[in-house]
Amino acid sequence: MYVCICNAITESDINNAVKDGANCMHHLETKLGVSNQCGSCRCDAASCLDRALEKEMGSVDLVTF
Ligand code: FES
Predict the structure, then answer these.
(1) For ligand 1, which residues put their CB under 6 angstroms from it?
(2) I need a surface site. Which of 6, 57, 59, 65 has the fewest CB within 10 A?
(3) 7 Cβ neighbours under 8 A, 6+ residues apart
(4) Using CA positions, which residue lies closest to atom 2 of ligand 1?
(5) Domain 2-58 has CATH 3.30.200.20
(6) How many A from CA of 54 to the centre of ligand 1?
(7) Per-domain residue ranges of the chain
(8) Residue 58: what are its φ and ψ, rounded to 5°?
(9) 5-20 tens-digit pLDDT
(10) Burial of 7 from C-beta contacts in 10 A (0-12 / 13-18 / 19+)
């Protein structure tokens, strides 16, 4: 599903950016160009970012020393 129509950015693109280290809207803006034109996708992109970060944090293996 497209999140940012202006730049043809999908939720999958955001998920992949998070897997590559993006962890804030600034990163999505610089890596993908999210929200850099009309800006109407900003809230949806932030929601996708939150979901992707929660998913990534859930997949992190905890290391005990
Ligand atoms: S929909 Fe993302 S900048 Fe326009």
Answers:
(1) 4-7, 35-41
(2) 65
(3) 32, 33, 34, 36, 37
(4) 4
(5) no
(6) 23
(7) 2-58
(8) -70, -20
(9) 999 999 999 999 999 9
(10) middle
- Distance from the alpha carbon of residue 32 to the mean position of ligand 1, in angstroms: 11
pLDDT at position 63: 62
Spatial separation of the C-alpha atoms in residues 4 and 62, rounded to whole Å: 34
pLDDT at residue 64, as a whole number: 61
Tell me which residue has tokens 């962890």. 23
What whole-number distance in Å separates Cα of residue 3 and Cα of residue 62?
32
Residue in the block written with tokens 């730049």: 7
